[in-house]
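User: Quick sanity check before I run a bigger batch. Here is a single chain. Can you write out its predicted 3D structure?
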Amino acid sequence: MFILVWNAVSGYEQGKLSYWLNIIQAKAPDSPILLVVTHIDKRADATLPFAEFKQKYPQIISDKYYQVGNLTGIGIDEVRHAIAKAAAQLPLMGEKWPTHWLEAANAIRAKTEKSLTPNPLYELMTAHHLAKNHCLILAKWLHELGELLYFHDNEDLKNIVILKPQWVTELMSRVLTSQQVLDKKGILTDAHRDVLWADLNHEMREHFSNLMEQFDLSYRALDDRHTRFIVECLPFEAPNYQAAWNDTGDAKEICMTYELNTLPPGIPT
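Assistant: Done. Predicted structure follows.
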């Protein structure tokens, strides 16, 4: 489920509401969406063509968009109720688990480590009497519920299980807010990555780099494996490459033009 939030002072257009709805529709077409506008105590006329948006994006499940006042707290209880009601309808919510499955899940939640390899995770499950062929099922369920991150079918990510997903958000935010990355127009070198993630060992730095690629937040340069492009930090205007292109001499040029109604995930914008 997605809660898409924008600031009433800036407006929904400045908040790129259509862009993010297109991204969600492309990446998670079955996920429900709630729309929430904040700071209405600073701008009361937070209008939105809701009927048009709901028709275009049927994933919006509510009959209205929710309005919240950050200073007064007005509307927050209504949003909480809407989130709880929508979350209760999600897959696996309210699912009855065998007692030993629940005990295993609680034991995983109680772990203080932020990550594990799969084998110790499975050993913890079997210690709570899970059959070996059920361990992956429980791990996948916990992944789908957002309790952990385990991409068991990804060769670059399957060897590490993240037990504290919020940790991922914190580490990635260091990259997305790095002034050096912004100054270099979205370029992240391994050397600077190692500074930003100095509290991680090399294996975990590589894992989190691969996670950023998994989430379409970065792309590795083809000609330099130690350099990545951070999509959110790329300049909006394309660079002037024509002079460098002309210096290639008599090289043959093939030009292809793609016209899309919206840029899907995976294409830097």
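Residues 2-87 form a domain with the Rossmann fold fold (CATH 3.40.50.300).

User: Great, the batch can go ahead then.
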